[in-house]
Amino acid sequence: MSISSLPTGTTIVIRGGRALLPDGDWDQPEQVDIAIADDRIAGLAAAYDLTADAPIEVIDGNDSLVLPGFINAHYHSHDVLAKGTLEEVPLETWRLYALPPQYPPRSVEEIYARTLLGAFECLRSGMTTVQDMLTLYPYEERHLEAVMAAYEKIGIRVVFALQYADRKGLETVPFWKDVFPPELRPLLTTAAEPERQFDLIGHFEQTCLKAVPRPRVSWALGPSAPERCSTGVMQRTIELARRYNIPVYSHLYESRGMALQARMTLSDFEGRSIRQLAAEQVLDPRLNLAHSVWIARDEIELLAEHGAGVVLNPQGNLKMKCGIPPIRLLQQAGVRIGLGCDNCSCSDAQNMFVAMKLYALLAAISDPLPGPPQAALALRSAMEGGADGARLGHELGRIAVGYKADLMLVDTRDPAWTPFNSAARQLVHIEAGRGVKHVIVDGKVILRDRQLTTIDECAIYDAVAAVMPAFRRDFANISQRVAKLQPWLDQAHGQIMAAELDIDRLAPRF
Ligand SMILES: [Zn+2]
């Protein structure tokens, strides 16, 4: 074995781990020493000479896999405290629980605690970056500052967007106008549709896009969904995204109802949202469309042509009765695919191992014919796809010299890894997250031996416990409101499911 000298400035060496290199063997990865200098990967070598008396930290990588940190490419921190509160419910009903504007304003303490807790869970599952598409309602500057302070404190990387829209729920869901009596209609809006008199986009540009950069924070834009945003809002969004070269995240065709809404209202565009986005010059490589469950084949081709991507969230799609995205069609068209874990109230777990496994399994039934190996594709989506979608593919999602040192070590001294037959398949189909031992973000060890180094874990649990009585009381009130709407919600959902929908049915989306 040849011995290499350490690169200048090395602060950490991960010694002897089996590393998932971009073009390496993902079944039996080779052992590689990884040198980290400041926030970057400074060198890769078969073995570094560690005999010199240099002040470096050596992390033992023996019996470990080393891989790039996962990128949770679709996540909302606003309902972290609602994990485990709901059984399966249709999406249109669920949104009334997840984003009710009738909540009393949240305390700074609650927002800080929930942001920390969500980030902590992400780190434990090997995520080093989260794309937080956050609804703050009513918007208060101190709430945004609490979110930023929590992310800075815990040390995770964030691609941050505020979620906004300018059309109310009643106008955007099929049959709601017919079904609901007028007195109940005000209860159908959500907090993703903020006060129209407040220019949230302009405020975001002034206070975030034009402000001094924050460590480990990059900005994005979050129009809630094409049917919830006017053409003016979508065009303003993409214009800003181009000017600042930042990504855009939006929701597309998460449910059958969202596809039906497009068919019923977009007669100028053959009932297709993607055709409308293309015609309005909004389809762009910066655009990431979460879900895309009910996307049609011709729309997939348009996405590929314009370089726009999708972010799939299989956990939430199943629990919200949305269906299965056409994974194989998206892969065949070469559409960029990231993976996310979405809201805590619909996906419950911020666990990329669960997301990858479901993705690989659903791919198997999204096309009846045999296809390419899915485990490696799931991993690439969780790492490279998410990084590319965030426009950070030049520095995140891969183990390569010059890239950010955002890495995790997975302990392979575990029944899940014995015998060690394939890194890719065992990561996707067997590992559930308990093996994540160390997590490094920006060159700093944030999780060491499964423990946070940046903040006392007990302080997070205590902070959450302190805010839960108020949250539980308010969530119970919201649940009572939604329960009153249930007969009409069920009636509208029945009509949505019974309506004709023009879509090819190769994939069993329901
Ligand atoms: Zn979402």
Spans of at least 5 consecutive residues whose pLDDT stays below 50 are none
- Provide the helix percentage: 25-40%
Based on CA atoms alone, the radius of gyration comes out at 23 Å
Quote the distance from N terminus to C terminus: 56 Å
Major sheet details? 9 strands, mixed
Number of strands: 19
| Residue share in β-strands | 15-25%
Coarse structural class: alpha/beta
Number of helices: 15
Give the integer mean of the pLDDT values: 94
Bound molecules: zinc ion
Shape: globular
What does this structure look like?
- The strands form three sheets. Strands 1, 2, 3, 4, 5, 16, 17, 18 and 19 form a nine-stranded mixed beta sheet that branches. Strands 6, 7, 8, 9, 10 and 15 form a six-stranded parallel beta sheet that branches. The protein has a four-stranded parallel beta sheet with strand order 11-12-13-14.
- It has 15 helices and 19 strands.
- The model has no long low-confidence stretch (mean pLDDT 94).
- It has 510 residues and is an alpha/beta fold.
- The protein is globular.
- The relative contact order is 0.17.
- A hairpin with a 2-residue loop joins strand 18 (444-448) and strand 19 (451-452).
- The structure holds zinc ion.
- Zinc ion (ZN) is lined by residues 74, 76, 251, 290, 342.
- Residues 74, 76, 251, 290, 342 line the site of zinc ion.
Descriptive key words:
six-stranded parallel sheet, alpha/beta, 15 helices, single chain, 510 residues, binds zinc ion
